[in-house]
Amino acid sequence: MNCVMDRRGIVHVKDDESFHKPLLPIYKCKKELVQAAKENQFLIVTGDTGSGKTTQLPQYLYKAGFGKNGMIGVTQPRRVATVSVAQRVAEEMNCTLGDTVGYQIRFDDCTSEKTVIKYMTDGCLLRNTLTDPDLMKYSAIVLDEAHERSLSTDILFGLLKKQFQLRNCKKRKYPLKVIVMSATLEIDKLSAFFGYCPVVTIPGKVFPIKERFFNLIGPRDKESTAYITETVKITLQTHLNEPAGDILVFLTGQSEIEKACHLLFKKAESIDYRHDVYDSSVEGLLILPLYGSMPTEQQKRIFLPPPAGIRKCVLSTNIAATSVTIDGIKCVVDSGFVKQLNYNPRAGLDVLEIVPISKSEAVQRAGRAGRTAPGKCCRIYSEEFWNKCMPDHMIPEIKRTSLVSVILTLKCLEIHDVIRFPYLDHPEEKFILEALLKLYQCGAIDRTGCVTKLGHFIIEFPLSPNVACAVIKATSFGCEDLLLPVAAMLSVEQVFIQYGDSLIQKEAERSHEEFHELAGGCNDFATLLYIFEQCKSSLNPSSWCKNHGIHWRALKSALNVEKQLKEITNRLRENKDFPIERFDGPKNEFLRRCLCAGYFSNVARRTMGRTFRTMDGHGSVVHIHPSSALFGKEAQLEWILFHSVLVTSKIFVRTVCPIRYDWVKDLLPKLHDIDAYELSNVAREEVTNERIMKRESKDETGQCNDRIQEAIN
Ligand code: CDP
Ligand code: MG
């Protein structure tokens, strides 16, 4: 094993073994693929996961000269996959990461003028269209992992079909090539969407997989967390009873995976390898977590073969189902659950929910064990669970999450008729209207559906409009230093470490409670700010985190994110239209009053006992989550503001602070001052000449400024 350094001085581990691999299935289709890409503007490539699409096809295009007239941009729905694939391809091409091969994810751009193959998240490409609407920097766009049907990929489908087809002919010397890559799902539908474009199928070989239901989870356990311990139990059993070969375990999210790793580690410690294991060549267990927000340096460990005699066991989120392929997996343990962002009509908000996976996802998960030899899949749930609780297919994200950010992006791209946009799957009209309503409420669009100046400022931030509004408000007061750390802390992974083990967990919890107290005792946002500042000013931030039950890597990214947000606010302040105000209230109200500017739709008032009622049209009854500093103090509160919602048996609000009615009373009427009928016209409206003129006139600029003031005041 040796190391490589990228152009920014970051060291990556290089794996020598990886180059001694049998040829990937895609190799046989190389000529056909290059030819088809040359002859067609739209092309679909399909093949089983692990056949080499993501790592090889961009290299084929590069070698065939596609990179001469612009970059080859490859999108991925997930950050981890984006970075690990770029690293891998840079190694295969023997170049430094960030030179010929680079990547870009939110808050981390590792590309240069030399970059030709650029891996990026789909969200990044969507953002890039705001500054480069014709994608003139690219000669080809590869939309990878299309079967995942992530929101940004779905929007890119429509954009590439609509915009670029139209504009291609006019502005470009060479038309933009669009290649959509997908595991074998819904190919006909995709091809029809892109004008019945050709499809190249990479033939693959899948080995048989023995599947077994362990009946530990049934339909009644749909909402319990029992599956975590049951999954750990089966994983240990598999380790003890199966012949050598690595194990891949599917769970749902970071904190749960860490808990499970901890549990498994505790159990594995007491194994006596002379007597307990079926296969005497197995002499140890290497437990590795894998989830979306994992730092780059750690990801590489997942792909390295384990030392001789040691069985590798990777506990992963759904990411290992299709986005990344780990070689050497002989056995899959499937918990049957996945964490999904769903729009919850009961709460009127996007909430993270743990739900049963679909049958087709379960088949995909099992398939990971049969790539190079026959394999096994242990399903911890029962056949009844499979029949009754698991849908056949997953619902695409566009039909189940909030559309606020993407609708604002479309509006900024001057696509005003957001109802008749070419969606591969049309979201429900009421979701589009809800998004417009939210944008109107926060002042990002006006009554006619046009983006306001504030809206243009909001879109500059890779943050949700709520947080962006609060940041803009603080910047207008010249005190963004207090809000940027909070915004940064809200955009990174979970900050508080949760250990499965009760003793350490208690200690960590004590430390977390202490932070709440030190930050004033009654404001979760202030706690985040306090932690950020303590960590930043400590001499050894990583050990400070370790000693206080805080994830160092989360804080490390927060420090980096804060720096980048600061660059954006500095830039925006140069803009002559950027609002400047004076803050007159007491200092301890500053943070909360800025938050009110962005989060006034997330406000609730106490009703009875410990419950609160939200003030948006939904009027849902919510409870304060036990992790909050305000938990148990409900009786002393009247109005609260919250960042996010978690739905289990009840609706919980997380990251909460108390506010005063005065601060929101002028904003709350905005939650009700436009009706659905008016909005549906706005959503459907074609841009008439009159409107274009109106938008361009000075009058309108004046109005926009008023609106900014109105929204910010
Ligand atoms: O995209 P597709 O699923 O068709 O395959 P791929 O991601 O291009 O993977 C092809 C091969 O490269 C697999 O055998 C992976 O294990 C390997 N690979 C790797 O070793 N390290 C990575 N970071 C990515 C892929
Ligand atoms: Mg792939």
**Share of β-strand residues:** 15-25%
Span between N and C termini?
58 Å
Count of runs of 4 or more consecutive helical residues: 26
What is the CA-based Rg, rounded? 26 Å
Q: Which small-molecule species are bound to the chains here?
A: cytidine-5'-diphosphate, magnesium ion
General shape = globular
Uncertain spans, ≥5 residues at pLDDT below 50? 1-5, 9-21, 695-713
Could you describe the 3D structure shown?
- By secondary structure, the protein is α/β, with parallel strands linked by helices.
- It is built from 26 helices and 23 strands.
- Strands 6-5-7-4-8-9-3-10 form an 8-stranded mixed β-sheet, with helices on both faces.
- A hairpin with a 6-residue loop joins strand 20 (612-614) and strand 21 (621-624).
- Helix 2 (53-63) crosses helix 3 (79-92).
- The protein is globular, with a radius of gyration of 26 Å.
- Magnesium ion (MG) is lined by residues 53-54, 144.
What are the main properties of this structure?
713 residues, alpha/beta, six-stranded parallel sheet, globular, binds cytidine-5'-diphosphate, binds magnesium ion
Summarize this entry quickly.
This is RNA helicase. By secondary structure, the chain is of the alpha/beta class. It is built from 26 helices and 23 strands.
Blueprint (SSEs and pairs):
Layout: E1 2-5, E2 11-14, H1 30-39, E3 42-47, H2 53-63, E4 71-76, H3 79-92, E5 101-105, E6 108-110, E7 117-121, H4 122-131, E8 138-143, H5 151-171, E9 177-182, H6 187-193, E10 199-202, E11 209-217, H7 226-241, E12 246-250, H8 254-269, E13 284-290, H9 296-303, E14 310-316, H10 319-322, E15 329-334, E16 337-344, E17 349-356, H11 359-367, E18 375-381, H12 383-389, H13 404-412, H14 429-441, H15 453-459, H16 465-476, H17 480-491, H18 502-518, H19 524-537, H20 541-547, H21 552-573, H22 587-599, E19 603-606, E20 612-614, E21 621-624, E22 639-647, E23 651-659, H23 661-664, H24 676-684, H25 689-696, H26 698-712
Parallel strand pairs: 3-9, 3-10, 4-7, 4-8, 5-7, 8-9, 11-18, 12-14, 12-15, 13-14, 15-18, 21-23
Antiparallel strand pairs: 1-2, 5-6, 16-17, 19-20, 19-22, 20-21, 22-23
Helix pairs in contact: 2-3, 4-5, 7-8, 13-14, 14-24, 15-16, 16-17, 16-22, 17-19, 17-21, 18-19, 20-21
Bound molecules: cytidine-5'-diphosphate (CDP) and magnesium ion.
